Amino acid sequence: MLSKALDLTAPATLPGTAAAPRARPAVRLDGVVKRFGAVTALEESWLQVEQGEFLTLLGPSGCGKTTLLNLMAGFLEADAGEIFIGDDLVTATPPYEREVGIVFQNYALFPHMSVAKNVGYGLRVRGVPRREIAARVEEVLALVKLSGFADRSPRQLSGGQQQRVALARALVIRPKVLLLDEPFSALDKNLRGAMQVELKEIQRRLGVTTVFVTHDQGEALSMSDRIVVMSAGRVRQIGTPDQVYRHPQDRFVAGFIGDVNLLPGRLEARAGERATVAVGDLRREVEADTLRDCATGAAVDVFVRPDHLGVRPAGESGTLPARVAALVYQGSHIDLHIDLHADLRSGPMSGGRVVVRMPGHGALATYAPGSPVALLVPQAGLVAFPAEPGSPNGQAGRTGSGQDDPAR
Ligand code: ATP
Question: Whole-number mean pLDDT of the chain?
Answer without folding.
Answer: 87
